[in-house]
Design goal:
There is one protein chain. The chain has a single domain, classed as Lipid/polyisoprenoid-binding, YceI-like (Lipocalin), CATH 2.40.128. It is built from two helices and eleven strands; from the N terminus they run αββββββαβββββ. The protein is mostly beta strands. The radius of gyration is 20 Å and the shape is elongated. 13% of the residues lie in helices and 50% in strands.
Length: 187
C-alpha cells in the first residue's frame, strides 16, 4: 500500500469516527417509551404515555455540554383501562385541561462511568417544579443511541391526587418513571 492509499484510508477512518461522534439532536418517538409503575391497594400497576416530544443536543463524549428538554402530553396516558385513563386526567390528578404537559429541562449531565451519567434537572407537573436527579445510560446502536433511565416521582410533591386521593393508603406516593429514548444525530 503506497503513501497515498494509507493517507486516504486514514482520512476515511477519521471521517467515519467523526460522523459517529455527531451529537444526538432528535428523538424517535416510535422507538422510544415513557412508562410508569406504582402500587394501588398494594397491587402493582403499570402505565405509559403515548405522546411526548424532546429537544436534545447530547454528545456522550462531551456530556457536560449536553442540553435536553422533554414534554409529555398528560392526556395521552394509558393507565391500563379507559376508566383509569379518564380519571387520571381530571382536576384531582393531572388536571390535564389546565396543565396539559409535564416538562423536564436538564440542567446537568455528569459522567459517572463509561456510557453512564447522572442527570439533574427541573420537572414541572401541575404548575409545581421540583429538581430531580437520576442515572442515565447510553447504549450506541450504529449512528443512533438509546438513552435510558428511571427515577422515583413523589406524586404528593406535584399535587397528583388531591382531595380524597391525597393520602397514600390507596395509591402509593412513589411512582417509578422509566424512559428509553432512541436518539439520532442531526441531519
Amino acid at each position: 500500500m503506497n503513501l497515498l492509499h494509507k493517507t486516504l484510508a486514514l482520512a476515511a477512518t477519521a471521517l467515519a469516527l467523526q460522523a459517529q461522534a455527531a451529537p444526538y439532536q432528535a428523538i424517535v418517538p416510535a422507538k422510544s417509551s415513557v412508562t410508569f409503575s406504582y402500587k394501588q391497594m398494594g397491587v402493582a400497576v403499570d402505565g405509559r404515555f403515548k405522546k411526548f416530544a424532546a429537544q436534545v443536543n447530547f454528545d456522550p463524549a462531551k456530556a457536560e455540554a449536553g442540553k435536553a428538554s422533554f414534554d409529555v402530553e398528560l392526556a395521552s396516558v394509558d393507565a391500563g383501562s379507559s376508566e383509569a385513563d379518564d380519571e387520571v386526567v381530571t382536576k384531582s390528578w393531572f388536571n390535564a385541561a389546565a396543565f396539559p404537559k409535564a416538562s423536564f429541562v436538564a440542567k446537568q449531565f455528569k459522567p459517572t462511568a463509561p456510557n453512564q451519567y447522572e442527570v439533574t434537572g427541573s420537572l414541572t407537573i401541575k404548575g409545581q417544579t421540583r429538581e430531580v436527579k437520576f442515572p442515565m445510560k447510553h447504549t450506541a446502536q450504529g449512528k443512533d443511541g438509546v438513552l435510558s433511565g428511571s427515577f422515583i416521582l413523589k406524586r404528593g410533591d406535584f399535587n397528583i391526587g388531591e382531595g380524597m386521593w391525597a393520602k397514600f393508603d390507596v395509591v402509593a406516593n412513589d411512582i417509578q418513571v422509566n424512559f428509553s429514548l432512541t436518539a439520532q444525530p442531526g441531519k
